[in-house]
Structure of histidine kinase:
Amino acid sequence: MTDSVNEFVHQHSVTELPAFPAVVLSLLEVMSGGDAGPRDVEAIIRRDSTLTTRLLGAANAAALTRGTPAGNLREAISRLGLTRVHTLAVTAAVRGYFRALDQGQPTWQTNLWNHGLLCAVLSRELARVRGACPEAAYLAGLLHDLGKPVLALAYPDAYDRLLQKAECSDVSLHGLEHRQWGLDHSGVGAELLAYWGFPALITDAVRYHHQPVADLAHAHPLVRCVALANLLSRYPEVDVTGRQAAARLLDLGRADAQALLDVAYRELAETRAAFGEDADADPAEANEQTLRALGKQARTAALAGGLGATLAEGETIDNIIMCVALLFGVRHLLVLQVDDDQEQLRGTATPTAHPGIADLSLPLDAEASPIASCLLHNRIDTLEATRQGGTLPVADCQVLDRLDGETALALPLFSSGRPVGLLVLGLRREQTAALQQETGLLRAFADQAGALLARQQQEARALRASRESARAEQQERQLRLVTEAANPITVMQNYLGVLQQQLEQDHPGQGGLSALRDEVERIKELISSLEAESTGEAPCDRASGL
């Protein structure tokens, strides 16, 4: 523990934070012993009247009730069982504590709580299959981000700005915290739990939940369970990074990890319903459910070789971006497309890309552009997104400057042996290592995405050709109109001139003839402009032809 974290906790948190509910540690102690009975649990919960009321309410929720509602605490414990009662009681107590820390940031506090609850359930499921204490794992998962609201309490304005910065940056929140204060939420939360007397393994799990997977390989199972749960619970579908972490930390295959994650999501919905938090009424939760369904569809289709059908539903580029996020856990990418002349790679504007990317292009020349070289040689390769040393051409640097990430991965897209575009993925270094082991899936995805992108380009060319053809037909019609109108207007001008000469200068009709000649001249100018628009020439160049 660094001196800065220790100093922060003792100068700010210990004196300013509300007291942590003692019932949580008491329940953990009695449940971890293995010989707890209903009376032991009841005696602990009864010490807190508010918790007793909330537990009874949760126990009698529609999601958990199987008959007549329980009339008292003992009956609720008997019906639900000790494990469920422990989960609900600890959840209610910790939820109340997090609400006490809420400083007017309902959106991110709600997201923080939902993530913590999912992480808790998943930590417990992982602990059950790997021999760690499920109750300790649940509590550690529930509290792993405790340091976030504590930092927000100490630095409300600064932390709010840091949260906003983390949303649009590839640098992690704990990395930004450390840059600004020399400490992060994992260290702050762990130090607080140690101060309150939590078991060392729980504080370790909180302290190390952001450590790289390689550094956790031989850590205690409880620490590994919480770290993996935190990683897996970021996305509704187990991506490449999650699969490799599950294999390395707990020797779990992707299917096993996904099954446990599915269980966790189901229990999360049930637990939230027990506390009156309707998952169906929560847009964020509904979006998560949609993403989970899309993620399963995309991964199943990719592995079955039918990803094209998934990509083809809707806008091609938008779906490519969504599938990259769901299959590989990559949120930052650029789309470069080969132009019609096969001479340039042009940046494509997308909802998630830097707005300036559409102004940039690269020569489709392997000698002039390392990025283009990856495409022309059909090579999946990494590029440093930090251009120190000036090893890349300026044009390539400009493209990579528009991409968030520590490194970049070039993914070529071909169709019928012809290069059609390139995806440049912005990655963290651990993502890069994971994706380098997924060449097969990357190739399968690139084949389908390339075919769809080529089809979109062909349709765009056909649309442009159709518009040009329609424009040419319109120009031809305009020229015919000009030609057909030229002779009558010339005749009218000549006839009016003859009439003017035949009339005496002071004849009353002279004024009318002059007005008519002016109007004919005006019509002549309008037709001249129409002809110029059709031919692309200046009006004065054609005026003499009428």
Notes: The CA atoms of residues 77 and 154 lie 39 Å apart. DSSP finds 25 helices and six strands in the chain. The first strand starts at residue 332 and ends at 338.
